[in-house]
# Entry
Amino acid sequence: MSFVAVLGAGNLGGTLAHRLALGDRVREVRLIDTEERIAQGKALDIRQASPIDGCAAIVTAAGSIAAVAGAAVIVVADPASGKGEYAGEEGLALVRRLNAVEPGAPIVCAGGSQREVIARAVAELHIPASRIVGSAPLALESALRALAGVSLDSSGVPIALTVVGVPPRDAVVAWEEASVSGQPLTANLPAHVISALNSRIPSLWPPAAYSLASAASRVVEAMVVGSRQRQSCFVAVERGGVVSMPVELGPDGVRRVIEPVLTRQERTRLENGLGNF
# Structure
């Protein structure tokens, strides 16, 4: 099985490498950063903990972007320098270099500020929309599920819900299809509680590093194993812009974008949001 390349050994990148190793779905995780000694230190730390964690994945490190060649999936995270996520012009330049070295592997942008990078990669670098996604919306969904679980005096694990649009301002929760243990969530949560959860979205964005790493790990694993379970990701859509939508993933990236079940009001909010991007 091919390896997964994680670009950036910062807080997000290091946490993601650990999460991928714990998942035991990939043979090797390659942590790549120009600050190679920092990447090597984090990779060694994860490997030394692997007998305790019970995972067999190998975590290695490299200092050159050329090390992405042959990767099954490439993840764009944050540099060890502490400058924050690869975003803006720096993020686009990095994706351009990645595409030159490895033009076939799908790219996952793990950060909460990388939506513009995805949009420009598709528009300016002509990377297929199916090949580059952002995993941060899945982390937002997780936070909302946890809060909904608190409202039910329960866990967020049995709760399923979908966030579409562009968080935080134009995020839309598909409450009509949300469920808890297979039952409609709207039958268990009063309207005022749902309204309160909607109002919490701006304060939940962007998610913190551990949530972002967990979300990216789930998306990468879905690509590696070819899962039919849908994941909410930032993806470039034909209607314009890059928005969060539920997608089915495979080894080549996005297999299909799934239209969520929305009320008329939710649909209008989504369309209005699409019109802004």
Remarks:
- Residues 36-53 form the longest helix (18 residues).
